[in-house]
Design goal:
Elements: E1 4-7, H1 21-33, E2 38-42, H2 51-61, E3 67-73, H3 76-82, E4 89-94, H4 98-103, H5 110-126, E5 131-136, H6 140-143, H7 146-163, E6 167-169, H8 179-192, E7 197-199, H9 208-217, E8 222-225, H10 239-249, H11 261-272, E9 288-289, H12 292-300, H13 308-313, E10 320-321, H14 329-336, H15 343-360, H16 366-375, H17 382-389, E11 392-400, H18 407-413, E12 419-424, E13 431-437, H19 444-451, E14 456-464
Parallel strand pairs: 1-2, 1-8, 2-3, 3-4, 4-5, 5-6, 6-7, 7-8, 9-10
Antiparallel strand pairs: 11-13, 11-14, 12-13
Length: 465
């Protein structure tokens, strides 16, 4: 059976950062277009959130073949609120573990907790939901209670199934399991329970994505993820890491469009300003080759250092190199061969660039590489340099004419491919744009000055590595 990926960016992810209604709508559409089969939202909690906030997202998803799941507490009030929406399913959570019953639920007994969960499932069933998920919050804690704890959890899981739950979620709420333990936890449940289960792993030790992949490999029926793994504390499993791991390594089909995930992440980062951290598989750094011996190999055979499917799906077959003290002369030969520079001459120029980088104590910017080459008598084009060493990143500081609202141009700037983020600020400037400066007359700086000449008073550009 193919596992179902449930994305919780618009539910769990909202615990990391609150997005505007319009941003939520655009994220939902991007998720749907990436082929995510199930998307989770939080039921409204007036006056904190409203019915209209949630309905706006559901409306955006209506043209797509996506199951929308509402998430709320195992209380009749929440279930009634969920029933007002045109959605496929509901997810009801309650924590029956000792620590949660004592410190969060006011001393509720275990029997009372189980009864409340069963009754909630039955109420949801009466409303006609096609998908009903009973979430045994903090379920992994039963695992650490040994055989007795697991037997208690297994009985609870099947009792939820008997009450009408489509599947039961067994979250590692405190992020305590290692990948090996996660595999044992899920495999034990799958062997002993007849009810389908979903997995939801938190990332407290950095294992959420690995645990989720292991859980699916052991038969978990549904896996919860978020874009960039955002969520409470340091989040849950990362959508890319789970889907790519299952598809590329385990050859497990998820139904998600593998080749569309990188585009989803780019769009998400632009909408929210949340960039992949340096160690993330889709970060800029992930496609940057720095070591000279690696560069020498990658020029001839990229998959010697980068997985082939990542080259195909994530990087469009291209990698970026850096001009550092470790620069390989093979890179310079690749760059300058059409200018007649090869062999010993390429080695000499490489040493010159590497030495310059060492003296500066940092990598050389693409424009610096070109300047050094031009000064050495090689009239290399900037676009050729950028094809090897990438584009330059810039912070563009914009001061607008008095009383002109920045919001009027932010929307258009965010549609530009070379703009990564736009922030409205207060002080000596009104906006800060983070963008990639392409080697052309129509780069983002010149376009910005031309397009908004009637409202921009001053533009300052800071180049960064």
């Amino acid at each position: 059976m193919k596992p179902i990926i449930l994305d919780s960016t618009l539910r769990e992810g909202q615990l990391y950062r609150i997005f505007s209604r319009e941003v939520n709508r655009q994220i939902a559409v991007q998720l749907a277009e990436t082929g995510i089969p199930r998307i989770e939202l939080t039921v409204d909690y007036p006056p904190r959130t409203t019915y209209e906030d949630v309905a706006y997202i559901i409306d955006a998803l209506s043209p797509y073949d996506v199951e929308v799941v509402m998430h709320g507490r195992a209380y009749q009030r929440d279930i009634e609120a969920m029933s007002k929406y045109d959605v496929d399913g509901c997810a009801l959570y309650l924590a029956p573990t000792d620590i949660h019953r004592e410190y969060k639920l006011g001393g509720l007994s275990y029997e009372e907790a189980v009864q409340r969960m069963e009754e909630s499932v039955e109420i949801a069933k009466s409303f006609g939901f096609k998908y009903i998920r009973a979430t045994v919050e903090d379920a992994s804690r039963f695992y650490f209670d040994g055989q007795a704890g697991m037997e208690r959890l297994e009985k609870l899981i099947d009792s939820m199934g008997d009450a009408g739950a489509s599947l039961v979620s067994v979250p590692d709420t405190a992020g305590m399991l290692s990948p090996k333990q996660a595999r044992d936890f899920i495999s034990t449940i799958k062997r002993r329970c007849r009810t389908p289960i979903s997995c939801h792993f938190h990332n407290d030790y950095g294992y959420a994505s690995a645990n989720t992949v292991e859980a699916v490999a052991e038969g978990a029926d549904e896996a919860h993820v978020c874009v960039l793994g955002i969520g409470d504390r340091n989040g849950i499993a990362d959508l890319y890491e789970v889907v790519a791991g299952l598809e590329d390594i385990y050859n497990i089909s998820t139904g998600v469009k593998r080749d569309a995930i990188s585009k989803l992440y780019e769009k998400f980062s632009k909408l929210t300003g949340i960039r992949p951290y340096f160690s993330h598989p889709l970060s800029k750094e992930a496609r940057t080759v720095r070591a000279g011996v690696h560069q020498s190999m990658v020029v001839k055979m990229p998959r010697g250092y980068v997985p082939e499917k990542k080259l195909i799906y994530d990087f469009n077959g291209s990698l970026v190199f850096e001009a550092t003290p470790y620069l390989s002369h093979k890179i310079i030969e690749r760059l300058l061969s059409k200018y007649g520079v090869k062999g010993d001459e390429a080695r000499r120029i490489t040493e010159m660039l590497a030495s310059n980088s060492s003296n500066k104590g940092r990598k050389l910017l693409p424009s610096e590489v070109r300047d050094i080459l031009v000064n050495a008598g090689i009239q290399v084009k900037m676009e050729d340099v950028s094809s090897i060493f990438g584009t330059e990143n810039a912070y563009i500081l914009i001061k607008l004419k008095p009383q002109f609202p920045a919001s009027k141009i932010i929307g258009e700037l965010m549609t530009w491919d070379d703009v990564d983020s736009v922030d409205e600020v207060y002080g000596d400037v009104d906006m800060v744009v983070k963008a990639r400066v392409l080697p052309s007359d129509g780069n983002v700086i010149s376009r910005l000055k031309k397009t908004f000449s009637d409202v921009v008073e001053e533009v300052k550009v800071l180049i960064t590595d």
